[in-house]
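ugh ok so i messed up the first submission bc i forgot one of the chains. this is the corrected input, ALL of the components this time, i swear. 1111 residues overall. if the numbers dont match what u have on ur side tell me asap before i send this to the collaborators (the ones from the other lab, u know who)
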Amino acid sequence: MSEKVLTQCTVGGPVKVHVENGRITRMRPIVFDNNDAPSWTINARGKEFTPPRKTTLNSYAVPERTRVYSENRIKYPYKRAGFDPNGQRNPQNRGKDEYIRISWEEAIDIVASEIKRIREEYGKAAITGMTSSHHNWGFLHYKMGPFGRFFNLLGYTMLCDNPDSWEGWQWGSVHSWGFHWRLGHNEPFGQLEDGLKNTEQIIYWSVDPNSTSFMYGGQDAAIWKYWLKELGVRSVFIDPYCNAGAGIWADKWIAPRPGTDAALAEAIAYVWIKKGTYDKWFIENRTEGFDEFEAQIMGEKDGKARTPEWAAEECDLPVATIYALARQWAAKKTMLAVGTIHGATGAARAAYGTEWARLCVLLMAMQGMGKPGVNCWGGAASGPPLNFDFNFPGYSANGWDTFGLVAEKSYFPDGNPVQQKAYRLLLPETILNPPVSWTGEGFCGENIQQQFNKFTCPEPGPEGAPIKMIYRHGGSYISTMCDTNKWVEMYQSPNLEFVVMQDCHWQSETNFGDILLPASTNFEHSDISEWNSAGGYGHYEMSQNHRIIIYQHKCIEPLWESRPDYEIYTMLAEKLGIKDEYTEGNSYEDWDRKVFEYSDLPKYLTFEEFKEKGYFVVPPKSKEGPYAFRWFYEGRACDTPDRLNPNLGTDKAHLLGTPSGKVEFVSRSLKEFAPNDEERPPLPGYIPSWEGHRSELAGRYPLQLVSPHPKHSYHTHNDNKSFWIERIPQHRICKDGYYWWPIRVNPSDAAKRDIKHMDIVKVYNDRAGVLAIAYITERIRPGTVHSYEGSAKYDPLEPGKSGSIDRGGCMNLLTPGRMLSKNAPGMASNSCLVDICKWEK
Amino acid sequence: MKGYGILIDVAKCSGCYNCMLACKDEHCGETFPGYSEAQPMTGQFWINVNEKERGSYSKIKVSFTPITCMHCRNAPCIKAAENNAVYRRDDGIVIIDPEKAAGQKQIVSACPYRVIFWNEEKNTPQKCTGCAHLLDQGYQRPRCVEMCPTGALSFVDADELKSSNASSIHPEYGLGERVLYLNIPKKFIAGTVVYGETDQCAKEVTVTLKGGGTTVSAVTDGFGDFWFNDVESMTDYELEIEQDGFKKIKRQVRTYGDINVGELFLEKIA
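and heres the new structure output, hopefully the right one now
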């Protein structure tokens, strides 16, 4: 039989890939054999817990083979019909024009000569480039590899990413507990052992542990929830939507009005202060500024006590529920399921989301976080007992030049000759209406100061240049950024002379490109990687039960005329005379081998053995712990492998990363850098949303739209590609031959508008109109509608027209472009007022 | 040989649909001669997940029940088929022979579980094969079971199945199913008890439920909530709360569906 069984890794978990006659026929999870390392066991409360001996996959990863062979692959290099690099460019027709198939040679010629021309005419800074996240998996060949090395070697205006999934945690909680080196998340160590052994209650606040909390870790953390249930650990969910986790695991579902979570947090603090049910020793010894906080909460500052009665009005919750929540929280050893990255939260992606995130930290400080059973445990999906002594680099281990980790020369962080920076959320304004200024550097992982650095694009002075060319690696933003009709306008601007789109699939932005370059998926070239390992700012943030290093076999030849990203950039580098620097003469296999040798794998097996077997299960650690924050609670030097913690090995090793080394109720960094910022004051508190129930706009658009990350697609990367996920009724729903994106509506809101289950509705506000299918459900609180972000179908009724009604379901056409607050430049997609009506053609 | 079975623990199904997707990955567009024609890319669900939203705002539970061919010992499809087009293997797996079954639409309608599908193009009925083509090659379990992340599906032998306390979802059919279920959800009756005077949740209050020939009780949790999770459908029940110093509360409910009685206020006896 000609069947080969190879190994690969998807964004949703590692797989065995069956290949017959050059075609992928099935993908299966990896089931361990007896030669693989043993699994860990946790003994808790008289029971033993050990994970299944296999990998689990996220739902969207199961049909990966249809994503590889999807009809929506970009099959050939294309040129936009109205685009003539030597004549009329017709930028106004981007999004409308047909495409003409061209040869790779012609495509590369045009791209290389445009790069040269624009650099000569305007300067190196006139070119920017940007990637999507997670459309392929691999260590070397993820976005930071081929793209990152090429552009840092060439020189370009770096487009700073905003921390899109957890904004308020970076822009907010860093000022309460430090952890800038984790972009605001706390350390993810030991929570599973501690949770099983000691915790009595988990509060999932604005987090869905049965969907996005799995991140790239397959569904390994799902079984933990059944173990916790078996031990009688209670689950409380706070979310306007009875989310995928709440629907099956909640003992209590509390549904506050969106944007009012900070008010609820303040009211909880009120009850604790009033009753004295908080950890006074911790407050005394591990925090500072509590007195001022207490004065605010009790109304001594402004005469407005933050009582449950006050909060009930804001949050639209029963007063009794708020009191009960506060009491239950104080009475039980409680994990708050936010903080670590697996708790990336919707409430932090909203106006003033900084304030809620900071209050979460302060509430946990009031309960003495770090003592047994009491901690921050994002999604209850971080902190499995894995062996972190074993070295294998995560994908961001060398920043924006992954190859540089094992190359002779690295081009990051010191390669890019261009100082000018642009900001992703402001790119449309930067092109349409320059110059644009902002505060805060995007991912601020080096120090707190980065949050206060000021930028202007184009940068004043001789080195600055207006952006004339975008090199887009991926193409999802119309569905994933905010107020995205702006992106349509941007792409049609004459200021933008040249646009390259390089991707595996046709995405929402693809047909705004002048030249399209077809990239192949990670199944079409080799790589080497660890499952679910980000490295860098997210190092050891894992939700999987075993550390697994995978040799990612090239399973099939590149499909149609697609080529691997690395080869595409190599072709360009050759035309631009920088090929030797880019490749250093290395083939794929050479790079794979260098990474193998860099890691701890050679201590266990040879490269050939590794390739043959295809994966390696890292042996478990030998002893219990260490636990996040336990060292801080006990006043010891940090004993967790939080490698980027700058205090490690210093006399401050027992302190947090805040200026005081304590949890700061009144933030010293904000006091120093932005003392008069009323939108992110040194002492956090509830600030009514600039687009919420109290806004004037609520008169015209009375429904609040929440748009969390989707359950059955990783952002846009599986929707409209991985064939059968559209047959999952909560993903898309077929009506009259079209697969519509669902919007969830409470029966009372539907009745007011005469909307029936499965009616096609228009969701609209002043920014946009989007068609969706109404899913009438009691799972969404009245006054709120719920529809996931991440539709990969941008299907405007009038193609190429900004403001056209979209029937693909791109909810982010509707969301505001306004940032969390004036100095916290994060996206606030969950502060969005809309109305809906029945759609009749 | 006693043969195989699948045990489905509904309490462990998290609604991920991996089983349905794995089945499609295996069978859509792939023909296995001697076992099955290719499943069409869309339209058939050899295993599917029934998703059910239960209760009302804000007492909601969502349950997921995977449904597939039950490989019945007493299979109506076998009886309905002519010329032995549907047969049972020694291991108990029921197989439709796609050629012999051509044109036999009555095989589809014979199945009370509605898990046999008609392939228009091939003019033949189709359903779950238990991944027999893989088991015969030495695979340990069918694709749906292998892909299940929580252990809600397990592949067991007939003895294990028998000793598991599992039951058929429709025992009244009397078909001797080889796919059995644990923790099939019944109906729930839930509510919240609140002290009327102070507007505080009433915890540790005993709530009694009479009906269906039994009396059971539950104690409210820290939110004043009580849940009776195993009540019969279409049955009259009486809820009663007797708390010292408070007026007795009584509520009549009939379980047309899952019942959220909302807030019940305990009023002090004057």
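quick check: Chain B touches chain A through 48 residues (CB under 8 Å). that seems consistent at least. Residues 18-27 of chain B form the longest helix (10 residues).
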